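Let's inspect a concrete specimen:
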Amino acid sequence: MSGLAVADAVPSDDSSMADLEPYRSELTGYCYRMLGSTFDADDAVQETLVKAWQSMGGFEGRSSLRSWLYRIATNVCLDALRARQRRAVPMDMMEPRSASLPPSHTLPEETWLEPVPNAALDPAELTERSDSIRLAFVAALQHLPPRQRAVLILREVLAWQAAEVAELLDTTVVSVNSALQRARATLAERDLATAAPVSPEDRELLSRYVAAFEAYDIDGLVSLLHEDASMSMPPFAMWLRGVDELRTWYLGFGSGCEDSRMLPCEVNGMLSIAQYKPDPEGGHMPWAIHALETSDGRISHIHHFIETDIPGAKLFVRFGLPAHL
């Protein structure tokens, strides 16, 4: 928790935290889009709820409780973003590299966009607004200045009125509309494709991917990929593009993934699976969460989010997964 502990908070009413708790999941979706990190979003939401809890006695009801909470959450996120660079995916930071080169260079975890568990989000995020929680959209949001980011999320994703956003940000409707126009222009440059909700055909594709990966059937695996498919592996500062490059990777530096086991995992409203790699000391250790982007019935990109906290398995535990098999 960022600087606030529940034990140190002085509630104005014994029931106030329970009253605030129902807002946790929707605030998590908002803070995650703002910050690009599931762990930072957790901290921001907890800080928001504790600040609201401490101040409940001074809440005068001039706005709705929900609006008041979003004001606090926005300020928490803007404060957090003042002292950090934007999070990114490798494709936004570098050119693709050859699969014949070893994956040696890593960057700090705060460099990279992180996934978020479906279970942490409000169900409406995954049904009514699934596009807005996909990794490509969240990565695009990180290109916006923080206040533009807040305006676009509140106006375009959460469908707030311009006057409501202006009140939340202590600015004018004209300023909100101007910020929204600039944010839309920036996102238009990203050429984001509209992602359809996960379909039964998508789930069948995931089943085939898992079967091929667990069997380490490389011919079967690459047959599921688009010709120009790509893959990335944060925190490694690299990504690969092209089915031949991916085949070379699987048969070369990636061959340590042979005999992996996979467990179900739900990430960002996308097709996803958790990979456990053979552990030299026995069993299987957490290795990567795979999030798949698809189009026309094939896989276009594979995000591999590598577990860097061994043996603690911080990422896997956050997703409700075992720390070891």
